[in-house]
Amino acid sequence: MPKPSRDRVAVYIDFDNIVISRYNQLHGDGQFAKDKVRSFPPTYGKADPAIAARIRAATVDVAAILDYASSFGAIVVSRAYSDWSAPANAGYQKQLIGRAVDLTQLFPTTQALKNGADIRLAVDVMEDVFRLKGLTHVVIVAGDSDYIPLAQRCKRLDRYVIGIGVSGSTSQSLAAACDEFADYDTLPGVQPLAPAELAPTTTVPPAAARRTTTPTASASASATTSVPADSPVGARNVQKAASAALRRAMELLEKNDLEWQHASAVKTQMKRIDPSFQEKQLGHNQFSDFLRSRLNIIEIDKSSATPVRLRLRPEFATSITDAD
């Protein structure tokens, strides 16, 4: 009988952040406020069927988030922060309670409830980190840059930090502050969006934007361009940046004096370089498929089928090319 994992995971969801970000991602920047979704349906008159349809289309799949978090270990803490009396959030209560999520009520002390969830969530994380000594992973579901110090502090306290945010509304610095970062759209169970479904005003995901810069000597350089990732140029830049990250990871692993590197070690190093790296975003189901698409950069040891081993091609010892 397999031994149960000793990894213990705590999940903290800034619910307003993820719901508003998802709605704006699909329907346009600022559309959540323009449609007055927080108070929908109105207490007077008839509900607008067009807005009701938009809300249904932008419904966040909480189960997909929790299932992804459970892949890191047993979930021992799960909290969602919001004003649960708001009509926009009340519809999620059954879904959340069904997954044993603790609904933390934030009463609207101001009209915008600015920083209410940020502060309460951060306080609870710090309390749990010090109180629960067996806690190994902290999952922060939000894209707000205000959570950067929290992620950094958790890492200093030897917790593995995972961030989950919506493309287009995630701070690239928050993604970099985490040990690992995932776009909500790429989580298993979340229906992928076709380019036509995205609002015309949707901007480049900051996490992906960091990978849309033409690779230089530093594969983790910040993006300075706003080329859409789903455009031909943006997609090419994302691929080139992934190639640069692969080469940099291989160079860093050369210090172990092994001719062939294990694929798992390479992927771990790539995630350290860019926590938001995901082979599925590049069109590959598995990391091994991604490696086979980069045979102009690396060689794969054909004498060892499992585990996959690879090494950097000699011609990549001194310079990065535009391989993609």
TrEMBL record:
Give GO MF terms, alphabetically.
Answer: RNA nuclease activity
Which residue intervals are annotated with compositional bias (Low complexity) in the record? Answer: 201-229
- List the InterPro entries hit by this protein, alphabetically: LOTUS-like, NYN, OST-HTH/LOTUS_dom
Pfam families noted in UniProt: NYN, OST-HTH
Where does the sequence pass through the membrane?
Answer: none
Which residue ranges does the record assign to the HTH OST-type domain? 238-314
Q: For the region Disordered, what residue ranges are annotated?
A: 201-235
This protein's name: HTH OST-type domain-containing protein
Organism equals Mycetocola zhujimingii
